[in-house]
Amino acid sequence: MSRKAAVVALTALAPISWGSTYFVTTEFLPPDRPLFTGLMRALPAGLLLLAITRTLPRGAWWWKSAVLGALNIGAFFPLLFLAAYRLPGGVAAVVGSVGPLFVVGLAALLLGDRPTARSLLTAVAAAFGVSLVVLKAGAALDLVGVLAGLLSALSMSAGVVLTKRWGRPEGVGALALTGWQLTAGGLVILPIAALIEGAPPALDSTNLLGYAYLAFGNTAISYFLWFRGIERLSASSVTLLGPLSPITAAVVGWVALGQALGPVQLGGMAVAFGATLVGQLSPRTPRSFSSAEQKSQKLSMDLEISSVRR
User: For residues 146 and 222, what is the distance between their CA atoms, to the nearest angstrom?
Assistant: First the structure.
C-alpha cells in the first residue's frame, strides 16, 4: 500500500465512524437533547487531548484555533442538529452532501486551487449517490431546515479549507491542534445548550457508555484522523470522503435496526462510493522534461526549421 493510500484509508475512518452516530444517539442516549449531545462529544474530548498533549496555543493561534473550532465544531454541530430536527433525515443528508462543492469553491478562493471538471463532477456524483441512498418520495422541505443544512455544510467546508491554509504551528502535533479545536468548539456550544435545553438530563449507565463512545472514539480519535488527513491530502480529496458517513449509516441501519436496503439504495451507494474513490486519484500533471531532453527537443526543432528553409 502506498503512503497516500494509507493516509486516505486512515482519514476515511473518520466519516465511517461518524456514520454510527445516528445509531448510538437513538439507541444509547436520552432523547431530544441534540445540543447537549454535541457538547458531550466535543468538550470532554478536547479537554482530554489538552491533558495528554499539555500544549496550549500561542500568539495568533489563540484566535485561529477559536475560528477553526467554531467552524468545524461549534457552529457545525448546532446547525447540523437544527437541520436534522427540521428536515427528514434523508433530506438533511442530501443538503449536507453539497459540502464538496463548497470546498471546491472555497479552495479556489482561499488556496488558489483551480477547480477541475473531475472535481466538480465527482462532487455532483457524490451528492446524487447520497440522495439515492437516503432520500424518500414525498420528503417535505422546510426553509429554515434547508438553510441550516446548507450553513452547516458551508461551516464544515470553510473549516476544512482554513485548516489546510493555516496548517499548524511548528513543533505542534496534530493531536494538540485537534484538542484546541474540540475545546473551542465545545465552549461555543456550552452556552447555546444551556440557554436552549436547560440543565443536563439524568444519565444512566447506558447513556454514559454512549457518550463515552461519541466523545473518545467518534470525536477525539476521528477528528484527529480527519485533521491529520486535511494536512496531508488536498481539501477536495478529504471532503469527498464525506459520503462514507451516510453510506455507513445506511449499512448500520440495515444490520442493527433492520432497515431495508433496496436496489435504488444499493445503486446510490455504488455511485457515492465510486465518486469517493475517483476523488482520491491524483490529478494528472504535465510531464516535466530534464534539461538534456529540452536541449534535444530544441536541437530537433532547429533542424526541422533549417530543413524547411532549405
Answer: 27
Q: How far is CA 153 from the centre of its chain?
A: 9
Within a 13 Å sphere around the CA of 213, how many CA atoms are in the beta-carbon half? 16
For 201, half-sphere exposure in the C-beta direction (CA atoms, 13 angstrom radius) is: 18
Nearest by Cα to 159 from 72, 226, 239: 72
SS3 readout for 188-250: HHHHHHHHHHCCCCCCCHHHHHHHHHHHHHHHHHHHHHHHHHHHHCCHHHHHCCCCHHHHHHH
Cα separation of 212 and 263, whole Å? 36
Within 29-98, residue ranges assigned H as helices are 34-53, 61-69, 76-86, 89-96
| Residue whose grid cell is 533542424 | 303
- Residue position matching grid coordinates 440522495: 131
**Amino acid in the structure at residue 24:** V
What residues contact residue 308 under an 8 Å CB cut-off, 6+ apart? none
User: Which of 145, 158, 176 has the alpha carbon at shortest distance from 67?
Assistant: 158
Q: Are 76 and 156 in contact (CB under 8 A)?
A: yes
Query: How far is it, in rounded angstroms, from Cα 242 to Cα 11?
Result: 10
Task: List pLDDT tens digits, range 244-296.
Answer: 888 888 888 888 878 777 888 889 889 988 988 988 886 654 343 344 444 44
Q: How far apart, in whole angstroms, are the C-alpha atoms of residue 47 and residue 182?
A: 8
Long-range contacts of 256-263 (CB under 8 A, 24+ apart): 256/23, 256/27, 257/23
Closest by Cα among 161, 174, 233, 223 to 4: 233
pLDDT, tens digit (0-9, with 9 covering 90-100), for 81-129: 777 777 655 566 667 778 888 888 898 899 888 888 888 898 888 888 8
- Dist CA 202 CA 6 (whole Å): 42
Q: What is the pLDDT of residue 128?
A: 86
